[in-house]
Design a protein that fits this description.
The structure holds 3 protein chains of 3 kinds. By secondary structure, chain A is mainly alpha-helical. Helix content of chain A is about 70%, strand content about 0%. Helices cover about 65% and strands about 0% of the residues of chain C. The longest helix of chain C is centred in the middle third of the chain and has 32 residues. The chains are: A mainly alpha, B alpha/beta, C mainly alpha. Chains in contact: A-B, A-C, B-C.
């Protein structure tokens, strides 16, 4: 039975900690709050800096425009699909590989690690990669978004670190002495103990898929396959070609006002709508970070 | 009788020989090495026959049976993802029997997409609306982009008419080797007004100035009055920003020509041509210092928006709409639907100014042509049909087919979406529910940068600011338009490679130093150090290359 | 509890020099074969990842030649002629007037972000772990993690508005009676704005992995510490921090390997004519050159240069980590 003694330094520590955390909270939250306010404010007020703590010139037309656009809804549907299936594929590729690399008795461990690491630094570049993918007939298909980026060395290493440091070798050795095969060892013992890392990796991969636009930008030109971020980018980012034209006075800004008006109006609403689903994901993952999950397992 | 006959015969012979020589000049002189055979006629046709599937020029539909071609193009934000939803393409398909499968990508990714597709040998029949002139250098000689001269000669009467009317359109489309790889977009419209400085007439009246400034001193006085008095008449004499824009372009537009006598081109690149045909770089001239001094004075006296370097277009527009800005470089049409419009205030444009150092009135002439706007690749099985298809976009109003001509892409169909309001055809208006050409860009057509000839000589009636703007420009500025280093002049591949990196370096340095001199961070006493530093940026080498490019351009446009 | 030597994991032969050097010793060789046979399933585990890297990373690597060739987009990669001289594009890059500036800016921006951005997520995770109130904890976690999703374009737009002459920050400064500071016009302010906006975006997200590691610390350790009379602060230092060390070191090493990778998008958006001397980095420079005349070979050469520098740094830092602690990449 532990005796709890409240040391004076403990109380001081608590106070300082809470104070700092509150400041961090405000700094982190204010810009988000700003985005929310701006999404329902008149763009003229937003751009002259008059929107500070509360929305001004409240209007919901930004959101209305966003939901009326069929391209955005299509992008939503596509992104959900890519995220769910893609994350599953990511986990199936990354976690077993990370586990294999975590075993000291895995012959070729160092070799494989180096082979994988090398790819982080040297890549052929866009054109050869495109050529390979094109030869595999993956351009303009769902596979290019599900498979490219199926794993990354960073995530493999993070998972490997977790396996090495958080799963006691005694457990694995006990299982092996009992005659357990590597496969059963992995699925029945390691995975259930790895909930935190599975949760974290799922989150990382899911967010990666959700925010994906570069791969889609290069390999997808068919509208019905476009993910949400690409649709967003089409609307929000000023096309380079047109920007050059504006600079040269070829297009006078006043005349393309319709498009700029659209951009201004839906810029912030679009951001809110595009990031809301993923933001809601985290609370579900949080419960896996609860302390003390390991205890029961070792004792048993 | 015999004598007259002999005379006629000899005359006919002379004419035949003469035209023979002329046409010889038109065919490419074929310099340099080519990798593949550049015949632009598909196999199986002799010089005199036309392919079987095609109907002769003038007869529609273009092809006997329906054909399908693939085209990749870049889009603006307001267009749908499939251009077959646009009215113009639907009607054209019915009229021509040519169906287009569109692949639409966003403008800033077009170049990357095009390069990877061409590298992987999996590309469409046509590329449109996203190419730059250098692409012709890269893909033309290897055959990936088709050479178009013969095709145009045989199948494109409207484009040839345009060439006769405006010979610079042909010169702009032709490479230094005399070949043509892309179709241009030519738009000498009356409403083609470059970025211009405007200010509110009532501001001028409110501060007691009677006439529009014509010299740099008068401009200075006016801006000072804007600052000190209550120009926007809202009771607060301190909230006015006399002059605002985004970046150093603000000064390069009017003040640089006024003080140095050179415009630096409509893209404000700083390269110009002097009266002897020699290439000039404005930032290295001594008179550039006077320009910097003037701008620095404006800045020090707080006559320029202190945020002019850091703000973006959105912030600027918001300020203009709230009537906080005196002089601005933008179209006043953005004032639609604001208090300023409600008060009916006139926007006046600044004429070209003169200064103690320069008495020539010059302003950058707007560019009215871009190229290439469409190219045909070697994967296209029906290049003749494609040329005939695009030829329709070059039609003037008289040559319109089924109400479709060059300006249909910008305005819509006559009497359906717009109509002339007077017999002289000097004014037109849109027909509800269309309000402006942005509406056209959403469901009817792609308004700009498709290959074609858009020549609009009439004025839009209902938009007061548009009319005002064009009137002011024509009266006060057009007579002084001067061309600088030609934007369409072409580089060879070696020249491009030689110049690209040093030119970026130079531009970076000059822009940065200009900004620093103007806001006073770098004192003007160090100007000679700056001039010495410029030399290390290879200005002379770049100038030599540009001189070669320019000389070639002059020769080819004769 | 007597620690018996686990024949699989802790056989001292693993530590022996010969085994490490991989010298073919007959005893070692047979041991290896035995292990391979016994663990054949592990090779299946690693197969998908291996296939992925071979297909999508190794096969395209032949494209590295572009850096040494006069690549013409029209012809293929293999049929393009070699550059004259072969290092022509590297020479072009090194001789550019802005080369030293871009190199200096890239490295300093990167080191600055790296130094601050590696430590802060750890600190945040530690602080959050100590908060008792679970709702407070969850609220802060969610708040700090959301900025990660704000896209770069919006972030820079917000920065421009907040730090403008009449923006929020200057209004706060005015409350203290001082003159407004024109942040966006000072090139000295650029790197601070760049790095700290990045910190705002990434700290919460970066702390997730540390939080996960902390959740794995066994409660027994805490109880033992309490019995020994440790204060809160001491618990953090002696239990939490060691628990995070392995992950932290790995992140450090990986970070060292990306020092040259300062992306162009955010910098390009934050650049103005005034701060060019401080803000022009290698990626924006190459982007600009490439946009005017498509220069594939040049951008490929620069990319290769970046990669080589990154690799050298990575190997160095890994070696240091290996000699100082037991955690390293290899």
């Amino acid at each position: 039975m532990a005796i709890r003694r409240k040391l004076k330094s403990d109380i001081l520590f608590n106070i300082i900690n809470l104070f700092l955390l509150s400041i961090i909270f405000i700094i982190a939250v204010y810009p988000i709050w700003f985005v929310l306010c701006a999404s329902i404010s008149d763009p003229v007020f937003v751009n002259t800096g008059k929107v500070l703590l509360l929305p001004k010139g409240v209007t919901f037309s930004g959101y209305v425009s966003v939901f009326k656009d069929p391209a955005i809804l299509l992008g939503y549907r596509n992104t959900f699909f890519y995220t769910i299936i893609g994350t599953f594929i990511n986990l199936c590729v990354t976690l077993p590989a990370a586990y294999a690399l975590s075993r000291k008795d895995f012959v070729g461990n160092k070799l494989f690690t180096l082979i994988f690491l090398f790819t982080m630094f040297f890549s052929g570049g866009l054109i050869p990669t495109y050529l390979v993918i094109s030869k595999l007939n993956m351009v303009n298909t769902i596979w290019v978004l599900l498979v490219v980026g199926a794993t990354g060395m960073t995530n493999i290493i993070l998972s490997r670190t977790f396996f090495v440091n958080s799963i006691p070798p005694e457990m694995q050795e006990a299982a092996q002495i009992d005659g357990c095969s590597n496969l059963r060892l992995f699925t029945n013992i390691i995975l259930p103990l790895s909930k935190p890392i599975i949760a974290v990796m799922s989150l990382f991969f899911a967010v990666g898929h959700w925010n994906e636009y570069f791969t889609a930008m290069i390999y997808i030109t068919i509208p019905k396959l476009k993910p949400l971020q690409l649709v967003l980018r089409d609307i929000l980012v000023e096309s380079q070609f047109n920007a050059k034209m504006i600079e040269q006075g070829v297009i006078d800004v006043g005349e393309i006002s319709e498009r700029l008006k659209l951009q201004e109006l839906i810029r912030y609403s679009l951001i809110v709508v595009a990031t809301l689903p993923v933001m809601c994901l985290y609370p579900f993952i949080q419960k896996y970070f609860v302390k003390g999950i390991m205890i029961g397992a070792v004792k048993a | 009788m015999k004598r007259i006959f002999a005379l006629m015969l000899s005359a006919a012979m002379i004419i035949a020989v003469f035209t023979g020589c002329v046409t010889k000049e038109k065919t490419p002189s074929g310099s340099g090495t080519e990798v593949t055979n550049q015949s632009s006629l598909p196999e199986g046709t002799t010089k005199d026959s036309i392919p079987d599937y095609l109907n002769p020029v003038g007869k529609y539909p273009i092809t006997k049976e329906k054909i399908s071609v693939r085209m990749m193009a870049s889009k603006d934000a307001t267009q749908p993802d499939d251009w077959n939803e646009l009215l113009v393409f639907q009607r054209l398909e019915k009229d021509t029997n040519v169906h287009i499968d569109f692949e639409i990508v966003n403008g800033d990714v077009f170049q990357t997409q095009m390069s990877v597709q061409l590298a992987s040998n999996n590309y469409p029949d046509i590329f449109a609306r996203g190419m730059i002139v250098d692409n012709e250098n890269t893909y033309g000689p290897t055959g990936k982009f088709m050479e178009l001269t013969e095709l145009i000669e045989r199948y494109s009467p409207n484009l040839q008419k345009l060439w006769k009317l405006h010979p610079d359109s042909k010169a702009g489309m032709t490479t230094p080797d005399g070949k043509i790889y892309g179709l241009c977009y030519y738009y000498p419209s009356i409403a083609n007004v470059p970025i211009t400085s405007f200010f509110n007439e009532s501001w001028m009246n409110n501060v007691g100035i009677q006439k529009v400034p014509e010299t740099t001193e008068e401009l200075h006085k006016m801006l000072k009055a804007f600052k000190e008095k209550d120009a926007n008449n809202n009771g607060d004499p301190n909230d006015e920003i006399p002059f605002s824009y985004v970046g150093v372009g603000a000064f390069r537009l009017y003040i640089q020509p006024a003080i140095t006598g050179y415009t630096g081109g409509s893209d404000s690149s700083g390269w110009d041509i002097d009266d002897n045909g020699k290439v000039v770089y404005i930032p290295e001239l001594d008179v550039y210092k006077d320009y910097l001094e003037y701008c620095n004075m404006l800045y020090k006296e707080e006559l320029v928006d202190p945020e002019f370097i850091t703000q973006d277009m959105n912030q600027l527009r918001a300020k203009i709409k709230s009537n906080l800005v005196g002089m601005y470089n933008m179209s006043p049409t953005i004032l639609n639907g604001t208090d300023v419009e409600a008060r009916g205030e006139n926007q006046i444009c600044l004429p070209p100014l003169t200064s103690p150092t320069n008495s020539k009135k010059v302003l950058a002439a707007p560019i009215n042509m871009t190229t290439p706007n469409a190219v045909i690749t070697d994967k296209c099985k029906y290049p003749e049909a494609v040329i005939r298809y695009f030829d329709m976009f070059y039609a003037s109003e008289e040559d319109a087919y089924n109400n479709f001509c060059g300006k249909t892409v910008l305005l819509g169909y006559e009497n359906e979406h717009w109509r002339y309001t007077n017999k002289e055809k000097t004014n037109y208006e849109f027909i509800a529910p269309i309000v402006n050409s942005d509406d056209i860009n959403k469901s009817i057509s792609v308004t700009m940068f498709l290959p074609g000839y858009v020549n609009i000589n009439s004025m839009l009636v209902s938009n007061k600011y548009m009319t005002q703007k064009v009137d002011e420009y024509i009266k006060k500025q057009k007579p002084y338009n001067r061309y600088a280093f030609p934007a369409m002049a072409r580089y060879t591949k070696q020249e491009a490679e030689q110049v690209s990196l040093p030119a970026t370096d130079l531009d970076n340095y000059v822009k940065m130093m200009e900004a620093k001199f103007i806001i006073g961070e770098e004192p003007l006493s160090k100007f000679s150090d700056y001039q010495k530093e410029l030399k290390t940026y290879k200005v002379d080498e770049i100038k030599a290359v540009k001189q070669a490019v320019y000389d070639r351009w002059i020769k080819s446009s004769k | 509890m007597d620690k018996q030597i686990n024949p699989i994991y802790e056989n001292p032969i693993y530590e022996s020099k010969e085994f490490k050097k991989g010298r073919l010793h007959r005893g070692n060789f047979t041991k290896k074969c035995v292990l391979i046979k016994r663990n054949w399933q592990l090779y299946l585990f690693i197969l998908p990842a291996l296939a992925y890297f071979i297909i999508f990373c190794y096969i395209p690597m032949y494209g590295v030649q572009i850096a040494f060739k006069n690549y013409n987009g029209g012809a293929g990669i293999t049929s393009s002629p070699w550059a004259e001289p072969i290092y022509k594009y590297f020479k072009m890059f090194f001789e550019g007037a802005w080369f030293t500036t871009t190199l200096k800016n890239t490295i300093s921006l990167s080191l600055y972000s790296f130094a601050v951005g590696s430590i802060l997520p750890v600190v945040l995770a530690l602080m959050l772990n100590e908060a008792d109130n679970i709702y407070f904890k969850k609220a802060i976690q969610n708040a700090t993690y959301i900025p990660h999703f704000i896209s770069t374009v919006v972030l820079v737009g917000m920065l421009n508005i907040m730090f403008s002459r009449t923006g929020l920050v200057n209004q706060l400064i005015a409350l203290f009676g001082k003159e407004p500071i024109l942040f966006l016009m000072k090139d000295k302010a650029f790197k601070h704005l760049y790095v700290w906006s990045g910190i705002w975006q990434g700290t919460g997200w970066g702390s997730i992995i540390y939080f996960a590691a902390l959740s794995n610390v066994s409660v027994e350790l805490y109880e033992a510490a309490i019995i020994d009379g440790a204060s809160r602060f001491q618990k953090v230092i002696h239990i939490n921090i060691p628990a995070l060390m392995p992950t932290f070191i790995i992140m450090l090493i990986l970070g060292a390997g990306s020092i040259m990778n300062v992306g162009y998008e955010k910098v390009l958006l934050m650049q103005t004519d005034l701060n060019l001397k401080a803000s022009e980095v290698i990626s924006t420079y190459v982007y600009k050159v490439g946009i005017i005349h498509s220069q594939f070979s040049l951008s490929s050469a620069v990319g290769l240069f970046n990669n080589v520098i990154n690799l050298i740094l990575l190997v160095t830092v890994n070696r240091i980590a290996r000699s100082v602690s037991s955690n390293s990449l290899w």
